[in-house]
Write a structure and sequence with these properties.
The protein has a domain at about 90-275: MetI-like (MetI-like fold), CATH 1.10.3720. The chain is built from 13 helices and 2 strands. It has helices spanning about 1-30, 35, 45-55, 60-70, 85-120, 125-140, 145-155, 180-215, 220-225, 230-265, 275-280, 285-315, 315-320; strands at about 170, 175. It has a two-stranded antiparallel ribbon with strand order 1-2. Helix 11 (about 275-280) runs antiparallel to helix 12. The longest helix has about 40 residues, at about 230-265. It starts with a helix and ends in an 8-residue tail after the last helix.
Length: about 325
């Protein structure tokens, strides 16, 4: 187990270094950031002074090494557009994105798992067939179309929920939360539901498929033959084994929620990190773009590594497979 953890940590470090280098190279060709900083009538001397102050004249590897060292300390430099530390900008926007992703993830689990179980236990029922059709529509529709339809229905026609913004928030230290206000909770409903739709339908269909597969196994048939109650068979034995692959998929999709929150935050004008990234792209704010991609990649790596470790804990077969086959044939 310690060797497995060490190997996964080393792999995570290599992935982060590779992602940082790719992002650094990519943004080198997005345009000259000096044009976004100085005025249009700036002289060539002033441009060169700004370039020298930002270290843009240094060799590429020197700039990359400086970026990696500073990023490891949480220092991503100054925003070209806002003239503020990038880490401060991300800290201001991170609570909004974190709460949006958290609510979306919980909604996908709270709705997807029960629906998946129901459609597996009642595969020929009318409601099960309707849920299957709705899940196909949810996967097929583009995310921004779903968001526009939600706004049209619940904000424009019914007027129940706000169509943009985060509502009132309460500051708790550096963290700002909308969980403690009525308008903040109402503002969370539409964007979080839009963000969770794809993962919700994915979890529902995965639980259904795994549940149907588990229900056909020999030990479930043996449990029925022993006269165990259907509730015990379905929820104590079948569901427990069904949720093992769901843990892996949920962990992978949790990182996807953070990455794809960009679309949701754009549609609902949600003041999160995704909206900050879009603004940075429009103004060629390279430090903000690089910091955002590195941060999202770090979240992906941490989640995937945690899922691997958790999967290793809940599935003892993996621990058995990694043990050396000593005394084989004795």
């Amino acid at each position: 187990m310690p060797l497995f953890i060490l190997r996964r940590v080393l792999q995570a470090v290599m992935v982060m270094l590779t992602v940082a280098f790719i992002a650094f190279l990519m943004f080198r060709f997005l345009g000259d950031p000096v044009n976004s900083i100085v005025s249009q009538d700036a002289t060539q001397v002033e441009r060169e002074q700004v370039r020298e102050r930002l270290g843009l004249d240094d060799p590429l590897l020197v700039q990359y090494g400086r970026f990696v060292v500073d990023a490891a300390r949480g220092d991503f430099g100054m925003s070209y557009r806002n003239a503020r530390p990038v880490s401060a900008l991300l800290a201001e926007r991170f609570p909004a994105t974190a709460e949006l992703v958290l609510v979306a993830a919980l909604m996908s689990l709270a709705i997807g798992i029960p629906f998946g179980i129901y459609t597996a236990l009642r595969p020929r029922g009318v409601l099960s067939q309707a849920l299957q059709i709705v899940s196909l529509i949810g996967i097929s529709l583009p995310t921004f179309v779903t968001g526009i339809l939600l706004i049209l229905c619940f904000s424009v026609w019914l007027g129940w929920l706000p169509s943009f913004g985060r509502g009132e928030v309460v500051d708790i230290g550096w963290w700002s939360t909308g969980f403690l206000t009525a308008s903040g909770l109402k503002a969370l409903i539409l964007p979080s539901f839009m963000l969770c739709i794809f993962q919700l339908t994915l979890i529902m269909r995965l639980v259904r498929a795994e549940m149907l597969e588990v229900m056909r196994t020999d030990y479930i048939k043996f449990a029925r033959a022993r006269g165990l109650k259907a509730r015990a068979i379905n929820f104590r034995h079948a569901l427990k084994n069904t949720l093992i692959p769901v843990v892996t998929i949920f962990g992978l999709q949790l990182g996807g929620l953070i990455a794809f929150a960009i679309i949701t935050e754009t549609v609902f004008q949600w003041p999160g990190m995704g909206a900050l990234f879009i603004q940075a792209v429009n103004f060629t704010d390279v430090p903000v773009m690089a910091a955002y991609l590195v941060l999202v990649s770090l979240i992906f790596v941490v989640i995937n590594t945690s899922v691997d470790l958790l999967y290793n804990v809940i599935d003892p077969r993996l621990r058995t497979e990694r043990k050396p086959a000593t005394n084989a044939g004795i």
